[in-house]
């Protein structure tokens, strides 16, 4: 099945209140995710979604792909390892999104199977919004060392709901754009001026706290019912110390940290993250310390690469995390 591409037959309609709900879940307070007037002022015509919002519908499409190519996986034993996101245009309230999901690679690794999916998200006009590449390690119920305990905790009807996310084989229709996206009018115009950024500049550090309630809320908002993120016994069953924060929740927190410094989410054109250490959220909660450094700049394209560091209890939770941003002229 490697190299096959499928299109989810149904579409996802982006709701205004869902944008706000998701912004709350990832603690992103930028006004363009909350205020229609701010979205207009920034040149977007209304609300735009936080940078990781796409993961809500993409998650269902990817799980349907899982079932299509390798059914029977224990949900509690699926772990994300890498995430690369290329941004072509912001997701707006009212957008109607379609999803093409392809299995890019498959191999044995880390005591299980490593899958890499490519998800291409297009809007109602056929314009590419996002291209995402996501890697997961999974263990099927047949190869898992224990009974799929987590499946007993997942909300009723979840797998039935997944079965309705139909995937239709999609014939090759030419290459998708893989270059840096064209910045739309207004996108990034409120960001830091390119001339104000230099190699070695430090992004002011920030501490972000997570509680068990935050994990439960994110699981509900994002539609990810994996119980290792909110149930102590499920986490212990797969040898985790405590429930762990969703990988995309930590990416969303980091994205909000970055865009609060940049001033405009539309300036971000690529994010790449490798996950190394989990964020354990006990009854006492957890705190993530974010910091960043400008690693390089390109005067020709007015882009900069920012390296982001995230630590929890002294452990780096990202082995590598970078964002490429395009900044306006002064």
TrEMBL record:
Domain spans labelled MaoC-like = 207-309
The UniProt entry, under Pfam families, shows: FAS1_DH_region, MaoC_dehydratas
Residue span, FAS1-like dehydratase domain: 2-127
Which family does the similarity line name? Belongs to the enoyl-CoA hydratase/isomerase family.
Read off the PANTHER family from this record.
Answer: HYDROXYACYL-THIOESTER DEHYDRATASE TYPE 2, MITOCHONDRIAL, HYDROXYACYL-THIOESTER DEHYDRATASE TYPE 2, MITOCHONDRIAL-RELATED
Protein known as: (R)-hydratase
- From what organism does this protein derive? Nocardia rhizosphaerihabitans
Output the lineage of the source organism: Bacteria, Bacillati, Actinomycetota, Actinomycetes, Mycobacteriales
């Amino acid at each position: 099945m490697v190299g096959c591409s499928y299109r989810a037959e149904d579409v996802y309609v982006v709701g205004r209140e869902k944008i706000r709900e998701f912004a709350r879940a990832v603690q992103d307070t930028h006004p363009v995710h909350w205020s229609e007037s701010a979205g207009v002022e920034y040149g977007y015509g209304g609300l735009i979604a936080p940078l990781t919002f796409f993961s809500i519908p993409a998650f269902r499409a990817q799980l349907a792909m899982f079932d299509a190519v390798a059914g029977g996986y224990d949900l509690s034993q699926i772990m994300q390892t890498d995430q690369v996101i290329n941004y072509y245009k912001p997701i707006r309230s009212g957008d109607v999104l379609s999803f093409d999901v392809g299995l890019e690679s498959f191999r044995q690794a880390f005591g299980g199977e490593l899958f890499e999916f490519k998800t291409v998200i297009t809007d109602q006009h056929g314009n590419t919004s996002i291209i995402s590449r996501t890697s997961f390690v999974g263990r099927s119920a047949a190869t898992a060392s224990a009974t799929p305990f987590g499946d007993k905790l997942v909300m009723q009807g979840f797998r039935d709901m997944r079965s309705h996310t139909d995937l239709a084989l999609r014939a090759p229709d030419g290459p998708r754009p893989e270059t840096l996206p064209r910045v739309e009018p207004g996108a990034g115009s409120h960001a830091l001026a390119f001339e104000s950024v230099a190699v070695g500049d430090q992004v002011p550090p920030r501490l972000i706290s997570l509680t068990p309630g935050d994990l439960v809320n994110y699981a509900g908002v994002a539609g990810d019912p994996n119980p290792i993120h909110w149930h102590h016994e499920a986490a212990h069953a797969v040898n985790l110390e405590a429930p762990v924060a969703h990988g995309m929740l930590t990416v969303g927190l980091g994205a909000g940290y970055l865009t609060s410094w940049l001033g405009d989410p539309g300036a971000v054109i690529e994010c790449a993250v490798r996950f190394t250490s989990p964020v354990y959220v006990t009854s006492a909660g957890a705190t993530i310390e974010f910091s960043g450094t400008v690693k390089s700049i390109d005067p020709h394209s007015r882009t900069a690469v920012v390296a982001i560091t995230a630590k929890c209890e002294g452990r780096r939770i990202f082995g590598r995390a970078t964002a490429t941003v395009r900044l306006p002229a002064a």
